[in-house]
Structures are given as C-alpha cells and as structure tokens.
Input
Amino acid sequence: MIATRPADHYREIAALTRAPVALMEVCGTHTMAIARHGLRSRLPPALALLSGPGCPVCVTPAAELDRAALLAREPGVTVAIFGDLLRVPGSLSSLERERAAGADVRIVYSPRDALAMAAADRARLVVFLGAGFETTSPLVAATLVRAREEAIENFLVLPVFRLIPPAMAALAADPRARIAGFLCPGHVSTILGTRPYEGLARAHRMPCVVAGFAPGEILRALVLLLRQIAESRAEVENAYETAVRPEGNPTARALLDRVFRVADADWRGIGRLPGSGLELREEYRRHDARARIPVALPAAAPDFERGCACGAVMQGRCAPADCAHFGTECLPAHPRGPCMVSSEGACAAHWRYGGAFRHG
Amino acid sequence: MDEQIRLDHGEGGAATARLVREVFWRHLGGPPFAEDAAAVEGAKELLLTTDAFVVRPLFFPGGDLGRLSVCGTINDLAVAGAVPLALAAAFVLEEGLEVAVLEHLVASMAAAAGEAGVRIAAGDTKVVGRGEADGVFVTTTGIGRRIAGVRLAPDSCRPGDAILVSGPVGDHGIAVLLAREDLGLRSPVASDCAPVGALARAVLAAAPGTRCMRDPTRGGLATAIVELAAAAGAGAVLHEEAVPVRDAVLAVGDLLGLDPLYVACEGRLIAIVPPVEAAAALAALRRDPAGREAAQIGEIVAGGGVILATAAGGHRPLHALEGAQLPRIC
Amino acid sequence: MCLAAPGRIVRIEGTRAVVDFRGVRRNVQLDLLPAAAAGDVVLVHAGFAIQRLDPDVAADTIAALEEAEARLRAEAERGGPR
Output
C-alpha cells in the first residue's frame, strides 16, 4: 500500500530539501490543486514550485482569441467554448465582451455537446474553440470523426491545441528556467503514457515524475523528485499508477493521428515552438473554421501589455510576485495578463490561494 | 470603477461590493446599504429590507422564483434578529408570459410566506414589451420587528467565537446551474431554498450571546465569512473538513471545476456565537429537521483575513468571490 | 490543465456509457476506451472516458465512491436528501 496521506510526506519533503531547489508543475490543474489545498504553506521555503505552461487559456496566442471574437461577430455563427475561455482577452476583445454585445457564445462541458448543437440547427455554423493539450485534443478528434460520419457539415473547429512534451523540452533546455525537476501532468500522461518523458530525462538530466491530483498524490510525487535530486538520478517515475500506464491510451493517440497532424505553433508568452501544435488533416479540413470563415485579423496582435511578466512566469524565470503589475494593477478583478485571467493561471492561483501567504 | 455593467456585478462578490460602494453609497450614503436589513429612523425596533430576484429557469429542483423571492427577503430579516411583519412584492412581467406560470409562482410565494407566518400585504405589477424582461422579475420588500433584547452586530465578534452553519452548502447554486445550463448532468441535488427564521430563533434562544448571523447566498459560504470578518474587524479560520457539503455537490464541483465554498445557498444560516454557547446553539440547530446537518466550521480569530485550514493540513486565504464561477475543464 | 473525475460505469449503451459520479450521472463517450465495461471505474474528461482506473492501486478512490454510493442508498431509504 502506497502512503497517500499528506501528513506522511511533509516531513520527508522538509528533510530532502537541503538547499534551494525549484521544481516545475507543468500542468495548470496541478497549480490549482497545490494552491487550493494550501500545500505551499507546509513546504519548506527553500522548495520553490514553479507554475508551468500547461494552462491552455494562458498560452493561446492573442491572435487566435481575436479570431474567435471575430468569428463570434459573424452572422449565423455560434461559438462554443469551455468556460475557461470566456474571459481571456485577445488584443481586440474577449468572448465575454462579444457575448455582452449580442454574439452567440455558449459554454459547453463536452465537444460532443457542441456537435449536438450543430446537428440540431443545420442553418447555423457552430464553431468549437479547440484549446487544450493531449488530454483534450483526442476528444475533439473523436467528435470530428463522428461529425464526418454523420456529415454534420456545419460543425467547425478552430484548433489551437498544443503539445506538452515539446514545451517541456524547450524549458528543460533553457538555463534561465532554473528547473531541477518536472512534476509531469497526470491527465496528459493518461493519453501519452510515460515514454515521452524518457528522452527529456536522459538528454537534459531532468528528473520527471508523473503525478495525480489529490494532495497526497502531489506530495508523494514531490518526494520522489527530491529523492532523485538527492541521489543525483534523472529518471521517469510514475506516481499516478491508478490512471497512467506506461503505454498511455493508444486508441486516443490513434484517433489524434487520424484527424490531426503535428505543426509548428506559437505559445503566448513563450514564442514559436517547432512541432508543438496540431492542424487538421486534408480529410477534415472542411471542418476547419480558419478555412471556412475568413475574418480580417488585425495586422498585429500583441500577446501582452508592456511590463506583463506572464511569459517569464510560465517559463519558470520568475514568480508571479516578481511582476511589477502583480497585486497592484493586475488583479483578478481587472486582469492585465492571461495568467491572472484563468483560474488555473499561475498569477490567479497565487493571488487567490496565496503563494506569498504563509500562516501558522 | 468599471465602465459598463457586467454579469459579475450581480454575482454578490467583489464586483458587486465595488458597485455598491462606488455608485450607491456615494449618492445614498453608507448606512442604509451597509447591511442587508436596516433600522428604520424613528422606529428603532423595525428593520427594513428589499431584494430583487431574477433566476433562470423560473422553476428548478427544490424551488422556483416565487419561493426564492419570499425566502430571500425574510431570511435577511431573520439573520438580523427580526421577525417578519409584512412583505410587499413588485412584479415586472414580460408580454406573453403565461398566466398559469405567474399563478404557479404566486402560489409558491404564498406557501413560503405561510411557512414563515407572514403575509404579502402590498404589491404592484408592471408589464414590459416582449424581450424587455426575461419572463418575470420580482422585487420583495420586508419589514420586521427585532426580537426583544436581541442586538446582533458583527463588531461584537470576539476571538474564539464559534462559527456555525445550519446545513450543507452549495445546494441551491448547483441545482440552478444544472437546471439552467445544458451540461447533461443529472443530479439528486435540490435547492435548499427555505425560510431560516425558525433556525435563527432556535439559535437565539439557545445562545443568547449570539454575536451575529448571515445567510450565505450569492458568493457562497466563503464570501459571506470574508465579508462578515471584514465587518467585524476580525479574522476567521474555517476548517475544510468540518464544512458540510453533499457528495453530489462535491462531484459536480469536481466535474465542472467549481469550489462549493463559493456556490450559493438560499436556506442556510451562519451564526457566530460565544464559545461557551456553541454546543447549545449547535444542538438547537440539529433539533430542527432543516438543521440536522448543522456543524461548527470554524472560529473567529484576532487580526484580519479568513484562512481555510485544508483537509491536507495546509492553509490558504479565502477571498470574496471575484466573477461568477464558470464550468471549466482545465 | 485537464480536470478529470472518476466515476463508475452503470451501463453501456452502444458507444457511450451512463457513468455515476457520487450520485451525479452523465452520458459519457467511450470512443477513447472502447473496451470499458459496466462496473469499471473510469476517469472522465469533458464527457469522454479517457482511462480506466486500476482497481489494485486505486483502492482509495474506489472506496470513496463506494462510501458515497452507500450514503446515497441510505438517504434514498430515509426518503431522499433534505
């Protein structure tokens, strides 16, 4: 039986943290869980947990959000989104503002709900804003396969999916990121398995531990990372054995490969990463909102306001509190950067749940 | 101040507080809006409160707009330590509304008022054109008489005081969310929408030293405690494991990424009582079937801010709700 | 970046399943997990089952689900939740 109770782990983490060390939780859901359970308040000050780029809302380029806003303005178009995306500003607008101005923007729980919307009203074009990582993109692939089978031609996707391993490789290669180990994303790994991290661990001497999302699971993964560091090992370990198999979910990956192909992609705050995005294959191109509904994008769509440190935060180069805007001009009430908009964004999580706040 | 009204301004969180402060208080003066129920000048035993109600859909598991509009107002009186004397109701009806729908809502209002032993004594109706309102909007105004000898004020809270809640939190918000949004979730959660006057009187009888009470509506338990602590000039610690939350509310929270501490209740009571009276107040709540799952969830502490002691043994600060919680997948 | 919740498959209807999450039910697509069977505990993300939980190592998760199921049955016998 594996110990998963938090109390079992705090002491060992403290004992293993002999010198300042920074670990990165790549996944935004880990960022949220760490903050929500108040885990930082029980970790030694020398152990820094950096919030990584695994927040789709944070890394979707402003230009793509502008495109979604412009699509929503088109007559006869419904834009269906996950609730996370409603408030994120592009350079022009946000979908929340477009909805207030009369656009048909709907929050759905599943891409299948957006497909059902399209099937129910063939006169409207339903555009699903496809943001997310390898956990989410296979679902959208499955939905597109169904749309093809049933010839639901008015179901479109604006694909802005990103791939996690290329982003991790870029961070691992960045000396300014000062990352000593990765807490690997649990649910992405249910699809990918543990093998994509092997090369990373070897090439960059980077300890990698796949973690679940319960407090005990996260803490146990931190223990495993700190043990690797203490013993000068750099391996891939799976601390989310309940849901993650070494081979991942091959059915999901096959669906992904059937519908999408890998392409270069821009990450808000990080820049262009080769082979880190997905585009629709020819057979599915008729469902591509980019191709089906042309819109006039602004010539330039700056990703950030001047002075915003979101990019550096997501690359582990600084903490939210190091940003001059954090907690002064940039607050959840009037966010200036994407990491403050998304509830799983590093800045919002630190603000709401108190990265800087220690008690007792 | 924000330039335009957004939906967040109606969610009862920090945006609402800014709107009240920067528009209403500026022109109307602080005191009448400082509390949900206010004393009437020249008649110190009387309390006055008003509330506007809009809900989509009009009918949801456990209640409807009619029941909500009565409970919301009489609960504001109840938590101020008053017994409701009379209600007035104003209706804005949209052209085309079916009379049968209106009748159903009004019958619900009568039933809820009956449960609380109060009459709806005055009313007004306006009809607006199709599309200018969403079916029915109801505003209710209540007048109540303070229970003799009861003086509730947040600034009477002292470190060590116990924080009690009368039942599981988040039922109303989850029931309405699932009824409104087409999320495909089927849940056994019904709104807790109910008058809390009997629970409030039970607490006051068992714990005469009760400092103050609140009903955690919009913004949920966390926002209510944050606002209460700020008004008290004190801090508070809540214990995550002690807060009653139904399994199904937790499950919806896990699926949609919602924090139950920020989900609305419409039939729960928060009471701050001196430590020596905590056990008696809790027992009194639990004797009422509506308070069967009442719990002591935390304490008032010196200093400022509200801290949640998490089940994982950590601490985190609680803030007022900022922006409506949206179903999310990340 | 990806919320997923564990639930138990109540029954299978073609390519989808009815899944119970501590009393909350939803239709869940099985496109990514075609071999899933009734009784399996699966992880669900945005309406799709993405992985089956291993009953040997997911004992805590499964025990929590079973406790919730037992509480629901008890509540139903008492006449439903208040």
In short: Chain A touches chain C at residues 1-2, 4, 27-29, 54-56, 82, 109-113, 132-133, 135-136, 138-139, 142, 145-146, 185, 187-188, 190-191, 241-245, 249, 251-252, 255, 344 (CB under 8 Å). Residues 35 and 350 of chain A are 7 Å apart (CA to CA). The radius of gyration of chain A is 20 Å.
